[in-house]
Every structure is written in C-alpha cells, then in structure tokens.
Amino acid sequence: MKLLSWNIQWGRGADGEVNLPRTISAIRTLGDFDVICLQEVAVGFAGLQGGVATDSVARLAEAFPGYGAHFAPAVDLPDAAGGRSQFGNLTLSRLPVGQVFRHSLPRPPEDGVPSMPRVCLEVVVEGPRGPMRVLNTHLEYYSRVQRMTQIAALHALQCDAVRLAASAAPTLDERKQDSPFAVWPRPVSAIICGDFNCEPGSPEYYRMTAPISADVSGWEDAWRACYGDIPHLNTVGLNGAEWPDRPYCCDYFFVSADLVDRVDAVAVDQATAASDHQPIRLNLD
After folding, report:
1. Rounded to whole angstroms, how far apart are CA atoms 38 and 91?
2. More exposed terminus of the chain, fewer Cβ within 10 Å: N or C?
3. 167: CB partners within 8 A, 6+ apart
4. Backbone phi, then psi, for 94, in 5-degree steps?
C-alpha cells in the first residue's frame, strides 16, 4: 500500500509562481499511489491563485481518474461573486472508501497571534488487509498553544476509534442498511499524515508520539519506525523557497501501534520545487 502526503501550497512553487498543472505533473512523476493526501488546497481565493479563482479540488479530481476525491475545507467563506472560497485538505483514494469524517480542530484564542481554522479529514479505506483509517491534517503554524490543543484532538480521535472497536463489531447486515444509523467499520488501524508545523524533538512532536492513555497507544512516527535515530530529511526550506529561512522537517506520517511492523519505507522527495514543502511517501508492507 503506497501513500503520498504533500502540502501543495495551492499549486504555488518555490519560485512563487502558481502552476497547478506543474503540481499535478509532479505527483504523477513521484509514483503510483493508492492514497494521495494533499494540504493547502484552494477553491476560489483568487488572491492566492494569481487572480484566478480556480477550483483546485475539481481540477485535481479530474487529473486523477479512478480516484475518489474527498475534500474537507477548514476555511469556508463567501466570495465577492456570490459563491464560496474554501481552503483545506483533499484526499484522493483509488481504494474503496467507506465512512468519511471531517473533524474541525480546536482553535483556542490567543491574543495577538494570527491563525486560521484547521481540519482533519478522515477516510476509511478498504486496504489489502481490511479497512484502515487514513487521516489528512494540517496544524496551526503561528500558535504552539493551538498546535498542542489540536494534537490532543488527534489523540482523542484515536482513542474514540480504539474504544469503539472494542465495544462492538459491525455485522454485514448492519453495513447494508440504507440508514444514517447503519454501523460501518472504523478500525483501530490508522495512518495520519500532513503538515504538523513542528520539528522533530519539539514539545509538539513529543506530545504527538506520547501514550494517549493507559489503554491506548500513541501515534508512532513512521520515519522512526523505519530508520530509528537517523535524522528526518528536511521537508521545508529547500529549492530556494522564500519561506522558511532554514531547512527543517515538519511533514510526517504517523501510524497506529499495530501498523509499526508494516512500515516498509518512508521517503522525502527533496528535488521537486513545485511547492514550498516537499512531498513525503509511505509504503506499508
């Protein structure tokens, strides 16, 4: 099972030019993926997109036929033309998708600190060994307080799934019910990826990988599971991008404890300049 995570900066490259076809071409060049998780996907917001209010969700969905497209806008605002401008996370899956959840993340106010709403998009895919949850998120950049609170929310999502799975297993008949009360799989096995806006060794990183509770294991860093103490490859600050002023890692794959032994490879493509972030790939055995 192959997954890609990438903050595409709405198609804006390290050169400052918005060019969504370049982003699409880069994704195709990177490989053949079962699930593609993208952050900073814009619908509208012409000011971001070189003055043209592009529906990037529609263009990306069209560019990858055979994939189901699931979008979670973190920001959803009226535009000047009577429509909506949206900004959030997009997951493309060629695996069958069951339940889809769009979790708004907490945003506690912090005086004098800019921020925007954040979201975690959760899809349940039918993987080679059964259903698995894939979560696609993007945490706040400016506020550590908000990041820590958002990480606590991501812990709560895993805690809910573990306890739900322990309470009752869905039956086939229940899954077939054409009802919003029908019970569908929401398994413990999970992958969470995206732009976490924190570095390895930061308080947020340690909070993310800490045990969630006495009966629920924490999220495991797939890079560490694969490479131990070898430092993470940098995912920002490369290829001449105007931001940030130094290279570091802030994009990750984390997995639930039961998937650690299935992590086969994690890779960062440091060559592409189609965003201010680098894409990161995960292979599960």
Report:
1. 6
2. C
3. none
4. -95, -5
